[in-house]
Amino acid sequence: MKRLYETANLDYIFLDYPFAYLNEATKAMLDLAIYMDTPLDIAMARGVIRDYHELDVVSYMKEYSLHGRNVKASADEVVNGSLPVANIIKVVKEKIHFKKGSGKLVNKTK
């Protein structure tokens, strides 16, 4: 990611990565961290559906239970992850445009 961040001429880089500012290697490169506040059952079901072919379910659940819940407090923004995907996209776009236009963060919302 560091090479991409330093060399690519991109307006945005989106990471589907649950550790945001908690990762020392990437936190200096982040302008905005948005946490999808999704109920545990929905988050785990989505993860298992997405990753089952690559990870065994028990390993995924152990990893999530150890690290998945610690990220919310370190995020700049919190979005209700149980909203329909179209609504989540709309909210995230609004937060990015607000941040880009004013240089200020919006209050954390649910």
Structure explained in plain terms:
By secondary structure, the chain is mainly alpha-helical. Helices cover 44% and strands 7% of the residues. The protein contains 4 helices and 2 strands. The chain has a two-stranded parallel sheet with strand order 1-2. α2 packs across α3. The protein is globular. 6% of the residues are buried. Residues 105-110 have low confidence and may be disordered.
How do you describe this structure in short?
This protein is mainly α.
Produce the secondary structure layout.
Blueprint: H1 2-7, E1 34-37, H2 40-51, H3 57-68, E2 77-80, H4 85-102
Kindly, what is the distance between the CA atoms of the first and last residues, rounded to a whole number of angstroms?
29 Å
- Integer average pLDDT: 77
Assembly context of the chains = single chain
**Secondary-structure class:** mainly alpha
Find the count of extended strands (DSSP E, 2+ residues). 2
Unreliable residue runs = 105-110
Radius of gyration: 15 Å
Walk across the major sheet and give the strand order. 1-2
The best one-word shape is globular
Q: Give the H and E element order.
A: HEHHEH
Largest sheet: 2 strands, parallel
Features of this protein?
mainly alpha, 110 residues, 7% strand, two-stranded parallel sheet, globular, single chain, disordered C terminus
